[in-house]
Amino acid sequence: MRTVRESVLDVLRARGITTVFGNPGSTELPMLKRFPEDFRYVLGLQEAVVVGMADGFALASRTTSLVNLHTGPGTGNAMGAILNARANRTPMVVTAGQQVRAMLTMEALLSNPQATLLPQPAVKWAYEPPRPADVPAALARAVQIAETPPHGPVFLSLPMDDFDAELTEAEDLADQAAAARRITHAAAPDAATVAALADRISRARSAVLVVGDDVDASGAWDAVLALAERTGLPVWAAPVAARVSFPRSHPQFRGDLAPAIGPLGRQLAGHDLVVVVGAPVFRYYPYVPGSHLPEGTELVLLTRDAEEAARAPVGDAVVADLALTVRALAERLPAAGAGAPAQHEQVRFPESADGVLTPLAALTAIAQGAPENTLWVNESPSNVPQFHEATRIAAPDSYLFSAGGGLGFGAAAAVGAQLGAPDRPVVCVIGDGSIHYAVQALWTAAAYKVPVTFVVLSNAKYAILHWFAQLEHAQGAPGLDIPGLDITAVADGYGVRTHRAQGAGELTKLVRDAAAQQDGPVLIDVPVTTELPSL
Prior knowledge:
Elements: H1 4-14, E1 19-22, H2 29-32, E2 40-43, H3 47-61, E3 65-69, H4 71-88, E4 92-98, E5 126-127, H5 135-146, E6 153-159, H6 169-180, H7 191-203, E7 207-211, H8 213-217, H9 221-231, E8 235-237, E9 253-256, H10 261-267, E10 273-277, E11 298-303, H11 306-311, E12 316-319, H12 322-332, H13 359-369, E13 375-379, H14 384-391, E14 399-400, H15 410-420, E15 426-431, H16 441-447, E16 453-458, H17 463-471, H18 487-494, E17 497-500, H19 504-516, E18 522-527
Parallel strand pairs: 1-2, 1-3, 3-4, 4-6, 5-6, 7-8, 7-10, 8-9, 10-11, 11-12, 13-14, 13-15, 15-16, 16-18, 17-18
Helix pairs in contact: 1-5, 1-6, 3-4, 3-15, 5-6, 7-12, 9-12, 13-14, 13-19
């Protein structure tokens, strides 16, 4: 008779999940003992870092990732990163060990008395199997739920004594049958809906496209690009984009919408129809009141997420597969006449100030040193506009940023992304404040020789909070400056090769050399000035 552990491993193999991100505790050891050679275990030194690595791995590899945490304390440590994964719509199965069943009722040490409540509402589904025999089938179901649009993390609490339990032959066969099931998610819109939307676009005096993260995540990049070029419509990126979903060097691209109600509404002035594809309507912060849309402007949202459609404050919505919907729409629309829009205006790069590079000058130097097929991970919140101006990303699957708004994603996700996309160079641009939310990721990168290039933009402050302090009239708030940090000393301690760049030419060369090697991570510290974004 086979054990639950053997059946669980076969379920994972059947789903193509053979990399485990974890930080083990005593309640997880029974799951991990006699770890098979065809699996890979990636150790992180703290649970939030573990989830962040799994997040980047899943997004870069377009697969479902598996996380193994330590009962209640480990899950609690990971909650911020799980919230980020939910916002990123990352397919992820989070498992946590649980005390043996015989001691759950008395809530012995390391019991998680309400295990399925702890991770909610950050997960799509939370479950503790009622019997050991149910563990493999529950895992198979968890994978299916994580992979159902909108993707997201799920949670399983697994008592530690379940894994040595024996299964009957019938139970084992049923578990493997559950793992072998395949569910296709490709809901196409009906023809009448597509025809009606095509008619609205044709009748519009000045329609505009707004593209969001799910265009890139769902594989609808080519379809949206074809629709934009066929119609000649201008294209905006939805606010606070966590992915790039349209070529930022394209002549029809207009830039990023502001993440606030009033300013965003004013940006759309002059358009009578807004077609939003794969984005919330809209991701707002901070609160700046005003009209969601200009007077007389209509909006239609195309989304795979019924909840996203329901919570939009304005407009109609079509819930269906994005690529299928956009292709069907393009087939019903006439080709635009000749005359391409003017090229997106190139911003002149400012000179460095007092020998210290401005963020835009530093990011330009980084972009010049990075290879063409770079996968970028960004967690420098105050420098996002400068980042996009410098990099002008024009290919799908090339940019990751946290959609959740919390720090701690960048450094960990970059390590996971490099493991998930080993054939691409990964460059992580990160603030000196941001990197310390997941600084333990540097140890994993060094220990596993993951060749990520970390570029730390150091200004000794939480610059984005200085901006919010101005906006919210909260000047004088404490805790916004972080002097005395030496990230190169910290990284050296974790075994990462480090450099400190002073000039643009030196920075470009360091990035070029780091991205070209495969011997492990490199961290480059770059002092920069502070430039607060505008709204």
